[in-house]
Amino acid sequence: MHRITYLIIFTILLFTACNDDEVSITDNDFPIVQAESTYSVLKDEDISYADGLSHNNSSTMAFAKSQLLDVYYPESDLTNRPVFMFIHGGGFTGGIKHKPEIVEMANYFAARGWVFVSIDYRTTEELGEINGMSQEEVLSFYKGIAPQEWIENALQGAGSTKQLQQSIAMYAAQRDSKAALRWIVANSDTYNINTDYITVGGASAGAITTIALGISNEEDFRDEISMTDDPTLSTTNLNETYDVKSMVYFWGSNIKLDVFEGVYDLDRYDSNDPELFMAHGTENDPVTPYEEALELQGIYGSLGIHSELATLDGFGYGAWHATVNGKGLFELSFDFLVERQNLYVE
Contact, 83 vs 200, CB < 8 A? Predict the structure, then answer.
């Protein structure tokens, strides 16, 4: 009799547990994504997420310019979506948020339940003409675009005007990417985003910016410039905070954090940094060599943080269509995010 009673109680508990799981899934306590392309993808284009001080080739004073992003999201009733913000490459000299490979990646993830946000940011194209300027004139010209100490460091280390402007653009791009992420948090309700599941990714210069975004403190690349010198900071949702859960890196480096440490003597790596997925080709590239990925992997290993490196044997820079064990970059990234973020897959 007791045995029957125990079996009945066990059965009740088992079904109760199953029902609780079903309620958890139905109530969307965590994001649900699809294993295959399931949803139609909607797109909101050219949304202004912040202003940033810029120059053109004839300006003598910096002016405010809107920075834009595109949002791809599933046409569904999901009310609890993970978000993936992607930062394009271009050596900090150019690049576009609607590069065909990025659009393809955006549709891949949005069709499976993510909100995918692709951003533009300031590059050397917004830094005007400085040939023939003295160091003092350069410092004045870029006041409010980068901190004085950053510009001074660039002036000391740059071997050409292009390198000088790339260094300054590195700072501006970082400031912009952080503003874009704060915009996403501020508008999370509009797109039914769960801000506990933030992924940031990028390729080349975008991967460099991704690493610096996920690992630096929230105040870095933000508080070094005062509102007096850069009034456009008031457009950047400064009251919002974020917590990056995962980073996706395609053929990048940690050079920006190296520069930050050189300028401010601050090492931002710690055991609370986001988990990291990297895909990097083995063919030599002078800007983002494969050794950069190995260095990051070593840093992560020393801190006890999970990271994965997909080595793209025989591929060099920009290997968007490389495969590893039959899987492309999008699928590899998908697998990493699902597993490490404990997403529920239907």
Answer: no
289, 322 contact by CB (below 8 A):
no
Strand order in the sheet with 81-87: 41-54, 63-74, 115-119, 81-87, 193-203, 244-250, 275-281, 307-312
CB 279 within 8 Å of CB 313: no
d(CA 144, CA 233): 10
In single-letter form, the type of residue at position 73 comes to Y
- Segment 243-270 shows an average pLDDT of 97
- CATH classification at residue 273: 3.40.50.1820
161-186 and 205-215 helices cross at what angle (nearest 10)? 60
For residues 3 and 85, the answer to whether their CB atoms sit within 8 Å is no
- Number of domains the chain contains: 1
Q: Residue 86: beta bridge partners? A: 118, 201
Which two tokens mark 88? 């394009």
Question: What is this structure's pTM?
Answer: 0.91
What is the C-alpha end-to-end distance of the chain, expressed in Å? 42
The residue type at 180: A
Domain of 164, in residue numbers? 31-345
Q: Is residue 25 part of a domain?
A: no
For residues 31 and 197, what is the distance between their CA atoms, to the nearest angstrom?
A: 8
Span 36-74, pLDDT tens digits: 999 999 999 999 999 999 999 999 999 999 999 999 999
Distance CA 311, CA 150 (A): 34
Report if residue 182 sits inside a domain.
yes
Average pLDDT, integer, range 143-172: 96
Question: Following CA atoms 281, 282, 285, 291 in sequence, which dihedral angle do they give, to the nearest 10 degrees?
Answer: 100
Structural domain includes residue 222: yes
Residue 276 counted as domain residue: yes
| Count of CB atoms situated within 10 Å of the CB of 249 | 30
| Residue 216, token pair as written in the block | 């630096």
